[in-house]
């Protein structure tokens, strides 16, 4: 990407391994995050540009739960992303792939790839997948039912004499990737009856990328591929669900302070008083039906049709977006309401074209709460730090800028990490809904999944006996208490 950032050092904050029990097959997650140590000063225009490219990359077109070792990077001043570490093939090899709720397919750069980056600024070693070196790999043919499903929903194609199931994904920023599909083993950890058991596997279909173009060729934030978390049949979560390995639900809780970190599980984080709203049906992304916006308890005078959903408009939840964006027609009303609420308490300034404010006290003492109101009487309440970014400080004065931006001429609203942090978010694909609740993401969470009758288990990760025994059982639902311990002070130069 084109953005140039000040030199920074990386602190890696690792959560402890945590048991995730889903009907006999839970697993283990680790989250890491990079944060800058020296400066929070960054042009919002660079963040907007990064997100613009990201939005162009939203694609245009055994019973239990699987849990991966997950690494996460989130900090708006670093322009982070979340990525996970997968093991594929026989013998298993590790790959780092971006977690992307805006696409469906898992693809990895392959050994014959043209344009795949060879280095990255993420403190990881990039690798290429070689299907010839895996004894369990096979090429997916055009006659495979999964290929036919991909042709209908995920950009697959069949042409040429080799009869391989191929794909070409073109993104709105001009970048793209192409290759062919392979089938190979995915390795993951499980917990069976309260005891950690490794070496579980499932056969999945994923992309072997032979060419990358545009921004996918750059090295600053490069990873080995992209892990699509979408709803279509070729997504890994859909494949594992169809095999009875995992539920069609995943959840995250992203910590927004003290170095970040958080939780990502395949399953439903269960907390009292969760707010749920239905997913808009027949849409390619995680679209929600937003009805209105309130600032300081007052509903803004924005026509509800501004938030209506079609292929080029509506509200999308996207963990791959750093900032957040309002539909063009709603943006000015939002900014005006914020400024009217704080006009006597702050000094507004323009910083490189961005609306910013000089503040000598806590933003929570000055700025109002914002509420995004959705179908089903579900409201997502935003505190000031959920829509503002601190750009820098001068003496005792802090410069805070609006983290909500607009895409000129577009009627799309995108809820990125700025909004999603410090909240539980549940993507319940089985019930076609998304839920949330404000939460301390360094705390324990309960994770559950509905399983087949007669298969129940309960594990309390904090109280499990040393022999791995499980104290209780609950009918039809498996639950676990997942505790995240933030380990600070691991410094990597």
TrEMBL record:
Residues 1-18 form the signal peptide. This is Peptidase A1 domain-containing protein. It comes from the Eukaryota. GO terms for cellular component: membrane. Belongs to the peptidase A1 family. Its main location: membrane. It comes from Hibiscus trionum (Flower of an hour). GO terms for biological process: proteolysis. Keywords: Aspartyl protease, Glycoprotein, Hydrolase, Membrane, Protease, Signal, Transmembrane, Transmembrane helix.
């Amino acid at each position: 990407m084109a953005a140039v950032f000040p030199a920074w050092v990386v602190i890696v904050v690792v959560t402890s391994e945590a048991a995730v029990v889903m009907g006999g097959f839970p697993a283990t997650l680790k989250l890491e995050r990079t944060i800058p140590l020296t400066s929070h000063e960054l042009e919002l225009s660079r963040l907007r540009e990064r997100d613009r490219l990201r939005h162009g990359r939203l694609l245009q077109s055994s019973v239990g739960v699987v849990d991966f070792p997950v690494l996460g990077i989130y900090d708006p001043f670093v322009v982070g992303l979340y990525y996970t570490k997968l093991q594929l093939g026989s013998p298993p090899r590790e790959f780092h792939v971006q977690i992307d709720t805006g696409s469906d397919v898992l693809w990895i750069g392959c050994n014959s790839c043209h344009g795949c980056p060879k280095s990255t600024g993420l403190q990881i070693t990039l690798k290429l997948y070689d299907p010839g070196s895996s004894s369990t790999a096979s090429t997916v043919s055009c006659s495979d039912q999964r290929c036919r499903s991909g042709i209908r929903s995920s950009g697959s194609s069949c042409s040429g004499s080799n009869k391989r199931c191929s794909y070409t994904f073109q993104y709105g920023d001009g970048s793209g990737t192409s290759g062919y599909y392979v089938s190979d083993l995915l390795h993951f950890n499980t917990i069976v009856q309260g005891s950690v058991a490794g070496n579980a596997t499932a056969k999945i279909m994923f992309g072997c990328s032979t060419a990358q173009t545009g921004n996918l060729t750059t090295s600053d934030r490069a990873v080995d591929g992209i892990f699509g978390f979408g709803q279509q049949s070729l997504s890994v979560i859909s494949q594992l669900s169809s095999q009875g390995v995992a539920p069609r639900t995943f959840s995250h809780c992203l910590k927004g302070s003290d170095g970040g970190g958080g939780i990502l599980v395949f399953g439903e984080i269960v907390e009292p008083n969760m707010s749920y709203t239905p997913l808009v049906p027949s849409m390619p992304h995680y679209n929600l039906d937003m009805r209105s916006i309130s600032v300081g308890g007052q509903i803004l005078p924005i026509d509800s049709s501004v938030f209506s959903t079609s292929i080029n408009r509506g509200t999308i939840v996207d963990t791959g977006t750093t900032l957040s964006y309002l539909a063009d027609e709603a943006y000015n009303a939002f900014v005006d309401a914020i400024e009217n609420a704080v006009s006597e308490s702050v000094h507004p300034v323009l910083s490189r074209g961005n609306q910013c404010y000089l503040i000598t006290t806590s933003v929570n003492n000055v700025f109002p709460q914002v509420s995004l109101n959705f179908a089903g009487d579900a409201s997502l309440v935003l505190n000031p730090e959920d829509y503002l970014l601190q750009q820098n400080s001068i003496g005792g004065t802090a410069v805070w800028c609006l983290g909500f931006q607009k895409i000129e001429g577009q009627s799309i609203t995108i809820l990125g990490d700025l909004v999603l942090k410090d909240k539980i978010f549940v993507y319940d694909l089985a019930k076609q809904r998304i839920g949330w609740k404000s939460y301390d993401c360094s705390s324990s969470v309960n994770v559950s999944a509905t399983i087949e009758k007669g298969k129940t288990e309960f594990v309390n990760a904090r109280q499990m006996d040393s022999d791995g025994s499980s104290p209780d059982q609950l009918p039809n639902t498996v639950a676990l208490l997942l505790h995240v311990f933030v380990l600070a002070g691991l410094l990597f130069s």
